[in-house]
Amino acid sequence: MNNPTSHVDTFVRDNLPPPELLPEFLFTTDELQLPARLNSAAELLDKKIGQGYGANNAILTRNETWSYQDLYEKSNRIANVLVDDLGLAPGNRVLLRAPNNPMLVACWFGVVKAGGVAVATMPLLRKLELEPIINKAQVRFALCDERLMEELSGALESTGFVQRVVQFNGSGEAGAGAELERLMAAKPATFDPVDTAADDPAVIAFTSGTTGQPKGTVHFQRDIMAMCICCNEYVVKPEPSDIIIGSPPVAFTFGLGMLVGMPLYAGASVALVEAAPPLELARAIGEFRATICSSAPTAYRAILSHIDEFDLSSLKKTTCAGEKLPLPTYEEWLAATGIRMIDIFGSTEMIHVFISAVGDEIRPGATGKAIPGYQACILGDDDQPAPPGTLGRLALKGPTGCKYLADERQKNYVVNGWNTTGDMCTMDEDGYVWYQGRTDDMIISSGYNISGAEIEAALLPHPAVSECGVVGIPDEARGMIIKAFIVLAEGVRASEQLAGELQDFAKQTIAPYKYPRVIEFIAELPKTQTGKIQRHKLRALPNQES
Questions:
Q1: Radius of gyration of the chain measured on its C-alpha atoms
Q2: What is the pLDDT of residues 48-103, one digit of tens each?
Q3: Does 450 lie in the same domain as 394?
Q4: What is the rounded distance in angstroms from the CA atom of residue 63 to the CA atom of residue 105?
Q5: How many domains does the chain divide into?
Q6: Nearest-CA neighbor of 261 among 296, 297, 298, 235?
Q7: Rounded Cα gap, residues 351 and 209, in angstroms
Q8: Contact, 381 vs 347, CB < 8 A?
């Protein structure tokens, strides 16, 4: 934080962790020696125009194709709208809300070019999930796909920070849903990117904690570039001729890296599919002749069950993240496609990948080892690096690191300068990491991090529920699924109909992918003497699905 900031609104910088709680940052490769002044949007997009990529395809969809020049001009017009019509000042937070589509990408570039801080939100989030994000980040403006306005409108009723919402992708040019396009039409296609410092905040990515309270992870301009450098130069290594596709939302840092940063850094193309469940993703691979695919292991397992129904012959590389890659999935994918799956281990706090292995360095069953630019170790009970073979907490140092926005949980993630990911692992003498499980109660299902406490909070208001405890249980298709143990209110009888009613009730306040797929009615919850639910005992109970 030594470079003069361009931010007029210094809210994010002012609410970063104090120096003593920041991790140690390492810049150990030539590619990671970045300049003091840096605007990542200009680096990724404007520079490509200067290098002659303007006529090349940048974004492919089933309805349209955008060239690099198209994306450049539209992002410039959006930046002009933000500054001229909305009055955005560098450092203001801008909420982005849309499925994976070209306008979302253009909005992201427009915000970052204008010196704003992008706060992208998952399309499935509900009103109650958007409210704490808006409040914690003190969001000033929002750019929202017309189709996702309902939940945002509800959230805005109880939050007071957003000064203006501009909709896009509307069904009619005269309607409010196309306001951004109308404003863009009156703006020039050029914009001088704000001269941001390399350590000016560019993104706040929210992740759920085990308490259900979202944590805002701040990433600098240099973090965006470090993500691209590490993924492109050291792991996936895409070429300009590649067509990249995937299922993660751009609101995830994994999606931002794989579907925005990686393609543009390489001068490649990305095929965006707004909804990409496994079989739809497989179909789209054939349609777009995609060469690189990114998804979760559960998606690849689902595709394997229908492998003969799709044309995957264009694929050259596949990457997976979000959960442990099971060895059988790796072996079956290799047998079916001839492709060795690249396991990507990263976190929202670190923005993207820090452990992986490619080609002959892949050791089946292991997640990989620290990629160039990062160091990894296993911390023992004394918070010191432990010898090979020790089971302990995975810890890392590198060019990126945890920077929670105004959050006491920073001290739990950073230990003696190391970033601790919440994963229990071992490391062999060659530096390969072998994943064993989570250290906390986070549930990882189909690549999504889900807080059990959040689901409990969604179920408890139902009049039939006296108490509940939520855990993750193993599932072949999704890695884990959510199971709720329900203690019924007095006089209420358990039934399959009631279980379905509770599932529907939860879906009213939380994103659909978070609902409990299994409900078990139980007489009482195991607890400690202080009243804390003993979730490890719930996980150990025999599975009796309702």
A1: 23
A2: 999 999 999 999 999 999 999 999 999 999 999 999 999 999 999 999 999 999 99
A3: no
A4: 16
A5: 2
A6: 235
A7: 16
A8: no
